[in-house]
Amino acid sequence: MEQVSASAQPERTPDGRYIRIGGRRWRATDPEIPEDAAARLRSSLMAARRGVKAAMKKGDAAAEKRARSQVHSAKVALGERGTPWWEESLAQRRERWERGLATGEADRPDEEHPTP
Question: Which of 8, 12, 81, 104 sits at 20 to 30 Å (Cα–Cα) from 26?
């Protein structure tokens, strides 16, 4: 997977809690998440976003609702939603992303992990 150069990284606020994209401020991913775990969480997030798109294309409201819930769960695990990561202890933060890894990988759509 290609790494994004430092110059292509979004601008961070001085406190590091937010990034700016297109003039909008977004909560930054928890910087304490190990890169391998963060990559797995981002992968779950992207799979869930693809699930939202596919469900909307099919007009499947139930599948869309499930996929949107998976998007939310991945965002919470990354620290981008829910209790701000800077208000949690390191133990709480670790527990949040580990729980997110466990549920995110279990919730992946069937095409992401087909049965043998």
Answer: 104
Backbone angles phi, psi at 19, to 5 degrees: -120, 160
Q: pTM (2 decimals)?
A: 0.81
CA distance 31 to 28: 8
Q: Which residues contact 89 (CB under 8 A, 6 or more apart)?
A: none
H or E segment and range at residue 95: helix 90-106
In our burial notation (b when 16+ CB lie closer than 10 A, e otherwise), range 13-47 reads eeeebebeeeeeeebbbbeebeeebbebbebbbeb
Rounded CA separation 79/55 (Å): 26
Q: Are 108 and 47 in contact (CB under 8 A)?
A: yes
Q: Is residue 78 within 8 Å of residue 33, measured between CB atoms?
A: yes
| Cα–Cα distance measured from residue 9 to residue 71, given in angstroms and rounded to the nearest whole number | 22
Torsion over CA: 17, 20, 24, 29 (sign): negative
DSSP readout, 3-33?
PPPGGGSPEEPTTSSEEEETTEEEEPPPTTS
